[in-house]
């Protein structure tokens, strides 16, 4: 999912090292919103769709954490 999003969004992807942190939060919140929508009483997309949205949310959170860890590592070793 991380690589798919990276290919799809390029420099605007969560995993992009040039994307400002202020632009990352809306990406993550959008994914959380999709999870919430998948849990509403009138959602008829099924559990598979909810699983996909949860995986996408986890992937975006992991991407952001990876960018931050990489930034810390580079700053410590420069």
Kindly state the mean pLDDT as a whole number?
94
Bin the strand percentage: under 5%
Listing every helix as H and every strand as E from the N terminus to the C terminus, the arrangement reads: HHH
Into which percent range does the helicity of residues fall?
A: over 70%
- Give the class from helix and strand content and strand pairing: mainly alpha
N- and C-termini, Cα separation: 31 Å
Tally of strands: 0
Largest sheet: none
Describe the global form. elongated
Counted by DSSP, the helix tally is 3
Any idea what the radius of gyration is?
Answer: 14 Å
User: Uncertain runs with pLDDT below 50, 5 residues or more?
Assistant: none
Structure description:
This protein has 78 residues and is mainly α. 73% of the residues lie in helices and 0% in strands. The protein contains 3 helices and no strands. Helix 2 packs antiparallel against helix 3. The longest helix is centred in the C-terminal third of the chain and has 31 residues.
């Amino acid at each position: 999912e991380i690589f798919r999003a990276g290919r799809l969004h390029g420099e605007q992807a969560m995993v992009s090292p040039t994307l400002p942190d202020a632009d990352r939060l809306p990406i993550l919140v959008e994914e959380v919103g999709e999870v919430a929508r998948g849990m509403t009483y009138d959602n008829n997309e099924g559990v598979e769709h909810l699983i996909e949205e949860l995986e996408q949310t986890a992937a975006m959170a992991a991407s952001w954490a990876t960018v931050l860890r990489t930034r810390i590592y580079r700053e410590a070793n420069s």
